[in-house]
Fold this protein.
Amino acid sequence: MAANIDLTSQKWLDIIFEGRNKSYGAYTLRQQSSKRHLIAFVFSLAFVIVVIFATIMVKNITEKNLRHIEDDSLVFRNIQLESPPPPEEIIEHRVEAPPPIEMAKTIQFTVPKIEKDELVKEGDEIKTQDDVLEQPTAIVSNFDNLEGRDDGLGILPDALLEDKVIVQAVEDNKTYEHGLIEQNPSFPGGESAMYEWLSKNINYPVIAQENNIQGRVTLQFVVGKNGEIENIIVIRGVDSSLDREAVRVVKAMPTWIPGRQGGNAVKVRYTLPVQFRLH
């Protein structure tokens, strides 16, 4: 009789809630529980099927890619590389050394040995300069008598005057740019001494002071080979009175240390700003 019991039948629910308030939420929940269980079972089964299918697809794709890689590697291993070309023949160049030059004959120097007078032989005595010069093969220098030379190296003093070459220094009159030579010109005592000298010797024009004119006048001049200031020009002025004073004070500068190129004093173009400021 127990085998004929249907637990999913709605009659059990009516028996349990007989005489009770069926409008209460519990009756509705129990009435719909079978439907909810069925929906949950269907969704769970669908999820499991999707997971199994996705696993199978990933496995198949992975195996396919592995087979493709293996095929590519097999193709790569079957490539035959061309053998490198044979190395070029190295040609050996031999340079024959010139024959040695025969040295001029000289008298061998004998290290003197101190002995007692009675033990020194006549041929071992130290020769004087006159004795050396009396030898027909003696060579004192290239300035020698040709008749006393048998090696062809003798030179008469008069022969040196025949083909003489006089070397004369070429004067460099080029004007170089400051900073582009070996040694730049400089004011005696350096740059700080130069600006100190300017501050002590500048006479501020009265007309510029009355009109409250101030600024920086930029001059350009050439420091000559003797250190004198030449060719002063105003490349950026402020006022005619300040410009004239800047030119005057630069002309009155003491002699500079000239610039040098190749060890020689040269002309160098120099740019100098002169500041006029009212305190």
Notes: The helical segments are 10-16, 25-77, 129-133, 191-201, 206-210, 240-251. The chain has three domains: 10-62, 117-161, 175-276. Residues 117-161 form one domain.
